[in-house]
Amino acid sequence: MTKEELKLNITEWSPASTFDEAGQWLNINVEANEFLPFMQQLRHSEALCFDYLFCLTCVDWKTHLTMVYHLSSTKFRHNVVVKVKLDRSKPEIETVAHIWRTAEFHEREVYEMFGVHFLNHPDLRLLILPEGWEGKNPLRKDFEDPINMIKL
Amino acid sequence: MYRETEIIKDFSTDGNGDMIINVGPQHPATHGVLHLVITLNGETIKKIEPHLGYIHRSIEKMCESLTFRQFIYVTSRMDYLSAHINNHACVLCVEQGMEVEIPPRAQVIRVLMDELTRIASHELWWGAMAMDLGAFTPFFHAFREREAINDIMEETCGARLTMNYNVPGGVVNDLHPNFQKRVKEFLELYKRKVHEYDELLTENVIFINRMKGVGVLSAADAISYGCSGPVARGSGVSCDVRKIYPYEIYDQLAFDEVLETDGDSLARYKVRVKEMNQSIKIIEQLIDNIPEGDFVAKTKNVLKLPKGEYYQRVETARGELGVYIISEGSTMPYRIKFRSPGFSNLSVLDKIARGGKIADLIAMMGTLDLVIPDIDR
Asked: CATH no. for residue B143?
């Protein structure tokens, strides 16, 4: 499907979501409370069939956090980007690990690097950072560590 | 990362007769500092838990304070076996925002180097995997050809492993006058010797018995776990970025996407061996047809990307590498994310190893072709 067709299809069943077509792919902004049914529809709808989650990450905008999900379809080869705005002081979002299994590891990475809590995640623990780093989120913009300097 | 609480778990047994053992972080078969905590029942694997972070350098955070010209060099240190392809992904991503036309000569040089890198990476994997399984000879055979590629790289790029040959707009300097001659010598050497690969491993009964039916990955799981590269193609999932989302000049080249449907270790092995032949095919098409002209386009000294988001994916030797840049219009990226193929391919290890024997784990890990700096970044 082209960008326009994707947009029409998604507007039909999710009128609340907003779109941004500036980049190479269609960007969809979704509210955190509608997020899980939205993602399930993207995965299981026969016309869309977004079965491949190839990138899952988070961006710190200093005022808020944004979760970014890059999805593509191995059947139709179309791509879409889903974005969810999160509260920076208490970031919480539903996990998608049961829809795309790859999300389990990617969400653990985002959890320790940005401090986003994934609700109902099967195993939310530190993956890369050593013990004692809970609560410290190195990829946030305000993270400073004068001893283990990671900013050049 | 290793936690103190797990020291107690070392070599301990609980009431069910389960034993927990640690493989790594310094284990010859993990080829780097990968740490696996394995729950065993007898010799059967019940669960594998990877612990990462031993070589995490926080490349994503570092890149936030480097300019668009500088950050490319750091990425050579991610997947050091496909350093050139990593650089290629980064320059393609930066060029999306630059509106610059890349000279055809630079495009051909980049693709030639990509394919040489891919062969070198697969050669190392082939030798090292056989060594893990107990066969020492293949390692020397693989390195004979790999050294020839490294010498070509050294002559033109100035380095053997971390090439740093790509710059936004083209490549850093022109090809060495000997380049074509050397590559043709390598092609001749490879074709003369490639039958040894089949004789040593591919047709070896002991080898086949150790690989066949080991670590079976279904196509549905490969997609769900985000696998890419030879791991997914061994399960019959068509995912070669060069074919499905062509970049640079790959859409003008004749080559086949190698697919196997068995999904076991032997299938993944066959995909990589056949992929080397496809890379040779690409190099043969290009080596006599390198266009004359500039090797780099004229670009501004200070590089600023317009505000926006850029995503570029390429096919490295291990799978799909994605570079995601968010620019705020300055000389440095606001946020950068590398979607590394190894990270997703590692996550499937637990799935394919469960129920298998501990001795087969080496075959499974070998055919996943994990490069730890790529996973940790």
From this structure: 1.10.645.10
**Which comes out higher in pLDDT, residue A50 or B22?**
A50
For the residues B20-28, what does the mean pLDDT come to? 78
Chain A residues 96-135 with a CB less than 8 Å from chain B: 100-102, 104-106, 109, 126-131
pTM of structure:
0.88
d(CA B3, CA B83): 32
Report the C-alpha gap between A138 and A125 in whole angstroms.
Answer: 16
Which residue in the set A24, A74, A150 is minimally distant from B61, CB to CB?
A150
| Residues B104, B144 within the same domain | yes
- Residue B105, token pair as written in the block: 């000569």
Chain A, 47 to 86: residues with Cβ < 8 Å from chain B are: 51-55, 57, 59-60, 68, 70, 74, 77
DSSP, collapsed to helix, strand or coil, labels residue B218 as coil
And the tokens for A89? 């002081």
Domain ranges of chain A: 3-92
Are residues B175 and B46 part of one domain?
no
A100-117 exposure pattern, b = at least 16 Cβ within 10 A, e = fewer: bbbbbbbbbbbbbbbbbe
What is the topology classification, in CATH, of domain A3-92? Beta Polymerase; domain 2 (3.30.460)
Token pair 């740093």: residue = B164
Across B306-332, b (16+ Cβ under 10 Å) vs e yields eeebbbbbbbbbbbbbbbbbbbeeeeb
Per-residue pLDDT tens digits for B257-290 = 899 888 899 999 999 999 999 999 999 999 888 8
Can you tell me the ipTM of this complex?
A: 0.89
What dihedral angle (degrees, nearest 10) is formed by the CA atoms of B244, B245, B248, B252? 40
pLDDT digits (tens, 9 = 90+) for B167-196: 888 888 888 888 989 999 999 988 888 888
| Nearest residue to B314 (alpha-carbon basis) of B237, B228, B224 | B228
Band the pLDDT of B9: cuts 50, 70, 90: low
Contact B2, B25 (CB under 8 A): yes
- Domain holding B42, by residue range, is 4-51
CA distance B195 to chain A (A): 35
Distance (Å, rounded) from C-alpha B163 to C-alpha B286? 20
Please tell me the total count of domains within chain B. 2
